[in-house]
Specification:
198 residues; alpha/beta; nine-stranded mixed beta sheet; globular
């Protein structure tokens, strides 16, 4: 029996290639499905190429506006918070106000462009520190079953991520080093074609 999935989630260990797949989806939509209205965000790594520090944080990039917001950094002094303290996830200080700003942009886009597809990278520990983000994802994705492609943290003790993973209406694909090159053709393209008739 073929399931008519409306939502596709990509999960896997950090660094396995989930965001790279989301970039490929964005490129595919722009090139192959230009009539599809979509909005959302990518989470990009920030790295210090001048030293051996490696990854120094994360940045949110929104679509279609292309705004950039600092999601997390190793440096607590970057930016400001309402209460003067950043919550921490691992070694990173999380800029919750950036997630709030991104969520407001998504809410505006729901009115302005009436998207056919939501594009969320990711539903994870950092993003879920924002109450606004939780409310938006719960209302627009879980409750209304809006067509959505998203990444979701593999290990995250939160009722929202648990709700996605246990929902029979949501297809969850596990990205691994072995399948990350084939999963785009095997699962993502069929999902997009099924929903948008590519």
């Amino acid at each position: 029996m073929t399931m008519n999935w409306r939502q596709l989630g990509l999960t896997g260990v950090p660094g396995v290639g989930k965001t790279t797949l989301m970039r490929k989806i964005a490129q595919y939509l722009d090139e192959k499905e230009p009539s599809v209205r979509w909005c959302g965000f990518l989470t990009e790594e920030q790295k210090d190429w001048q030293s051996k520090r490696g990854r120094t944080g994360f940045e949110i990039v929104t679509f279609p506006k292309g705004n950039r917001y600092t999601l997390a950094s190793c440096d607590e002094s970057r930016g400001s918070t309402r209460n003067g303290k950043y919550p921490k996830v691992g070694k990173y200080f999380v800029h919750v106000e950036s997630v709030d700003q991104c969520t407001r942009e998504l809410r505006d886009a729901m009115i302005e462009i009436k998207p056919q597809l939501l594009f969320i990278d990711e539903i994870g520990k950092m993003e879920l520190l924002s109450k606004d983000f939780i409310e938006f994802i719960s209302a627009e994705v879980l409750d209304r079953k809006k067509a959505t492609v998203f990444t979701i943290a593999q290990k995250c003790n939160h009722k929202l991520t648990d709700a996605f993973k246990s929902n029979e209406d949501v297809q969850i694909a596990i990205v691994t080093k072995d399948n990350r090159d084939s999963i785009f053709q095997d699962q993502i393209i069929p999902f997009l074609n099924q929903n948008f008739g590519g």
